[in-house]
Amino acid sequence: MGAGEFLPSMAEFDAGLLLATGRRRPRVVILPTASYPDGEEVFHRWATQGVAHFGSLGAEVEPVLVRDRAGADDAGAAQAIGEADLIYLSGGKPVYLMDVLRDTVVGGALLAAHDRGAVLAGCSAGAMVLATHAFDFRLRLAPWPLRWQRGFGVVPNALVMPHYDAWPEPMSVLIALQAPRGSVVLGIDDETALAGRDGAWQVHGQSRVTVWRGRHRDRYRAGETFRL
Questions:
Q1: Closest C-alpha to 125, from 112, 140, 139, 138
Q2: Which residues, given as ranges, of the chain have pLDDT below 70?
Q3: Structural domains of the chain, with CATH
Q4: DSSP state of 12
Q5: For the chain, which end, N or C, has fewer CB atoms within 10 Å of the first or last residue's CB respectively?
Q6: HEC profile for 34-45?
């Protein structure tokens, strides 16, 4: 998702994610780690909203309150993720999220869950870390040059630009043109989602997804599909 996790406008899409698990009452884990740099209140608010949202859709929901790398090496947190049918990474700071989860037992549990067929979902920062590459322009006044971070690679050979419609597109172009060679840039608008399986991706939600392959740009709206 580009933005808008746990909003009523995304309820239909999220109900589809639950249906995709194949479970009558899916087990959902909410991982609000990316929001922790914004403070304990924000962190708990995202967890609470996620529990309420997916609970209203008929799921059994558990927040996994990983704040830092010590928490990301907690066996109980990893077990909760290992038992989940859907793991949802909410928004916040993408580089912080990657730094916390990389090479930890919780990070490993996420990848193992994906390998066994669990649904992984991410919004904004959460979506960015699921791709192969993620950009970082902390402490910069302009998006040139960017620093690139290694994501989890669940979406292979790609990077996600969330909030795409909230930025002036000339800025987005500067970012897209700096993407690692051969990668695909997925610009996802607010309250819009992209769902994929086996290389086929479909747009859902209010707006559109912009796909950059080098200097070539394509736009896709709800219901349209493409391949990566």
A1: 138
A2: 137-145
A3: 8-227 (3.40.50.880)
A4: H
A5: C
A6: HHHHHCHHHHHH
